[in-house]
Amino acid sequence: MVLRWRIWNCLRSARPKLRSSKSSKITIRAMIKGFFRCPLDVTGRIDKVLADQFPEVSRTWIRKAIEEGRVTRSDGSKLEPKTKVFPDDELMVDLERPSCSPIEPYDYPLKILHEDDHLIVVNKDSGMVTHPGDGTSADTLVHALMHHCPDQLCPIGAPKRPGIVHRLDKETSGVMVIAKSEQAYHSLVSQFSDRKTQKKYCALVSGQLSGTEGEFNGAIARHPKVRVKMTVAEHGKPALTTWRLIKRFEEGFSFIDCEIKTGRTHQIRVHFSNASNPIAGDLTYGFKQNGKSPVFFSRVMLHACELSFSCPRSSERLTFRAEIPDDLELALQKLTPTE
Fold first, then answer.
1. Is 196-339 assigned to CATH 1.10.540.10?
2. Cβ contacts of residue 177 below 8 Å, gap of 6+?
3. Contacts of 11 (CB under 8 A, 6+ apart)
4. Correct CATH for 2-94 of 1.10.10.10, 3.30.40.10, 3.10.290.10, 1.20.120.80
5. What is the pLDDT, as a whole number, of residue 98?
6. Catalytic center residues
C-alpha cells in the first residue's frame, strides 16, 4: 500500500508536465505495476493509452493484461481493450511479464553464428527440441539458451518459449534465430508471418526425382487419424516448396536444396513424402531403411542451411549459413554419384 501511494504521489506531482517534461515521462514509464491515473490531456481506448504511456511494453502484451484482468478500475471492475478512458480515471495496472527462471539452465555447447543485444542466431543440432512441451526433457534449445545468456531472452512467450519466433523439428539441424529484445521479437514475428524471410534447406531424399528442379504446392493440414502427422489435403493451408537437384546417387537417392515460401509444420517432409520421395531417415513419413544400403540413417536427413531476414534495428538484410553437419556429409560420402 505504501508503494502504491508513493507511485500515486509521484504521478500526481508530475501530471501537469506529462507532455513537456521528459523526467515525468520516465517516471510513468518506469512504473509497470501499481496505481495509475490517466493524464489530463489523454482520452481514448485503454489499450492505446497504456501503449503510449508505456512504449517499452508491446500493445499485444497490454491487451493480454487487460483481458486477463491485470488492468482494472481502482475499484477492481474489469475493462476491455476497447474501453474508453478519460483524464483522471484511476486504474490498477500490472504489466509485468513472468520471469523466465522456471526453466532450468542446461550447459550445452551451442554453435553460435551471431549474437548481439537484440538477437542470437544458432546452428541447432539434430536431436535437440526447440522449446519445452509435453513429454520433453530439460535439454531443449531454450534450456541451453537460458544457460548461455541468462535473463537476456525476450520475455514474450516465457516461461517455455522466451524469444522463440520460429521452430525446427527435433531431428532437423540448422539455422535458427531467437529474439532477445521485444523490438527484435515483433520484427521477426512479422517478417516470418509476412513471408519476408528466406529459408533454404538441403536434404537427401529417396528415389530419383524427375527433372532438375520443381515445386510442390499442395495445401497442408493435420492428418485426420494420426494427430502428430501432417498431410496434403484440399482443405489445408496453402504451402509452397521449391527444389533444385544437386546430385543423384546410384543407390536411389537424390541430394537437393529447397526453399519454403510458407512455414507449415513438417512442410518439406510432407511435400516430398506426398511425391513418393520421403526424406532419408524419415520413418514418420514413409521412408523404409534398405538393409543393403551402405548408409544407415539415424535421423531425418534435413538441414536448414541458410536463413535471411532484415535486421530489426537497421533493416539491413542479414544472411546466416550453417555448414552441412557431419552425419549428412558422411552419408553423402558413402553413396555413389551417378554420371
1. no
2. 119, 120, 121, 165, 166, 188, 307, 309, 320
3. 27, 28, 31, 35, 36, 37
4. 3.10.290.10
5. 65
6. 169
The 10s digit of each residue's pLDDT in 154-213 is 999 888 899 999 999 999 999 999 999 999 999 999 999 999 999 999 999 999 998 999
Scanning the chain, the segments in alpha helix (DSSP H) are 2-14, 22-30, 46-53, 59-67, 141-148, 182-193, 267-274, 326-334
pTM of the model: 0.73
CATH class of segment(s) 101-194: alpha beta
Cell of residue 101, nine digits? 527462471
A 10 A CB-CB count for 185 gives: 26
Distance linking the first and last C-alpha atoms of the chain: 80
Closest CA to 144 of 159, 156, 131: 131
Are 318 and 309 in contact, with CB atoms under 8 Å apart?
Answer: yes
Backbone region of residue 189 per phi and psi (left: phi > 0; alpha: psi in -120 to 50; beta: other values) = alpha
